[in-house]
Design goal:
This protein is mainly α and 417 residues long. 76% of the residues lie in helices and 0% in strands. The chain is built from 22 helices and no strands.
């Protein structure tokens, strides 16, 4: 892809084809990002987006570039860049609206939702992924798989394993679902299955260095789970090697966490501490709370017997992150702090109701919107006029800070599930 896209860029410039140049630059950039040449790849993505921002690129090519851009940002974990380019797309008039471009909408929401999940913005991630899944009902199977797999990944992180299993059951044997399935196996303590799934995924992705790093990190943890510290070290070493090639702070920190865990399992405490501290330094400038929390918690566990004061500090840092996310690890942090004799006040927050601000009648309207009914049909069922229904819909959009009936329907579907 990288080679052919580079040839296409030359041809586009030779024949002064701006659409082709923009699309080929984005394709080449995405390919280079995937190969681990992140800086070089994102430069080409930025160049493509600058051309797109001129307003001279036709809508089909612009949509293709938008897909490449968000995918590259998701793979490299760059949320700030994704947010910036989404604003450019909007200003350039590239529609990511469900009504006008449902396929582009489904892909963008799935990719952006996956990125939000990575950085720990779980509420926003769930909204984006649910919107993608709803939009993809009548679209490409790939987009439905992407959405379900990312939502399953989120459910595993939240400790909602049964829901994750149900989502993955509808994904078949598509590659996009294998990493989430491996995480589910690991979360359930099915380490042999996790190892098998990760190795299957690694065989399928070939030279994809960016997605290989988190898979190798998961492989290291699964090898620890089944008692093979040497295999865990080898997996972590491979993750570190690839992460260094990408120069991605997020991937370097994930590899460092894997090496810290593997070194700890092998009894190499000093090497483990050094790896975890290096991981924290690498990820410090980023928004990726989840990996920061994991690194702090791993350090806290490692230092429990040798330096209780430092362990308490690390456990408190981890708890602050996991409590903010309402993640299952918060309970682990609280238990560890109590074991260390530290005062801690923690209680899980009740699950928030996204429709809590609505009146009884508005909830009835939302339920019928979820069934795809028109204002006239809703009015007939509730014995009110279509004009009154329109008024209720306007109030609902305002209270929920949404923009369309479609978004309301998606939220209702997610709440019901």
């Amino acid at each position: 892809m990288a080679t052919k896209a580079a040839e296409a860029v030359k041809l586009a410039r030779k024949f002064d084809d701006l659409d082709l140049e923009c699309k080929a630059l984005a394709d080449q950039g995405l390919a280079l990002v995937t190969l681990g040449r992140g800086s070089e790849g994102m430069e080409l993505i930025d160049e493509a987006m600058a051309i797109l921002g001129s307003g001279e690129v036709h809508s089909f090519a612009a949509g293709q570039v938008a897909c490449c851009t968000l995918t590259a940002c998701e793979r490299i974990g760059d949320l700030a860049r994704a947010d910036a380019w989404l604003r450019v797309l909007e200003e350039a008039g590239v529609s990511t609206d469900y009504q006008q471009t449902p396929v582009l909408f489904a892909h963008c929401q799935a990719t952006y939702g996956s990125l939000l999940c990575q950085v720990g913005r779980w509420g926003e991630a769930e909204t984006a992924l649910t919107l993608s899944l709803t939009a993809g009902r009548n679209g490409f199977y790939l987009h439905r798989v992407m959405s379900r797999a990312s939502l399953a990944d989120l459910r595993v992180r939240q400790g909602r394993l049964q829901e994750a299993e149900q989502l993955l059951a509808a994904c078949g044997d598509r590659w996009e679902a294998i990493p989430a399935r491996a995480k589910l196996h690991y979360a359930r303590g099915e380490f042999e299955h996790a190892v098998t799934s990760v190795k299957q995924a690694l065989r399928q992705i070939g030279e994809d260095r960016v997605r290989a790093v988190p898979l190798l990190a998961l492989l290291a943890d699964a090898e620890i789970g089944r008692g093979d510290a040497d295999a865990a070290i080898r997996a972590a070493e491979n993750a570190e090697r690839l992460a260094r090639e990408t120069q991605s702070p997020v991937l370097m920190s994930e590899a460092a966490l894997a090496m810290g865990n593997a070194s700890s399992a092998a009894g190499k405490v000093g090497a483990a501490v050094a790896a975890l501290e290096a991981g924290l330094r690498a990820v410090a400038p980023t928004e990726h709370l989840l990996i920061k929390g994991a690194l702090h918690l791993a350090l806290a566990r490692l230092l429990t017997d040798s330096d209780s004061a430092a362990a308490i500090t690390e456990a408190r840092s981890a708890l602050a992150i996991y409590e903010k996310l309402d993640a299952p690890e918060a309970e682990v942090c609280a238990t560890l702090l109590k074991r260390l004799g530290a005062a801690v006040s923690y209680s899980p927050r009740p699950v928030a109701d996204p429709l809590a601000a609505l009146s009884r009648r508005e909830r009835e309207v939302v339920q019928l919107l979820g069934q795809g009914l028109s204002n006239t049909q809703i009015g007939s069922k509730l014995f009110i006029s279509p004009k009154t229904v329109e008024h209720h819909v306007g109030n609902i959009l305002g209270k929920l800070a949404l923009r369309s009936r479609f978004e309301v329907a998606a939220i209702e579907t997610a709440t019901r599930r």
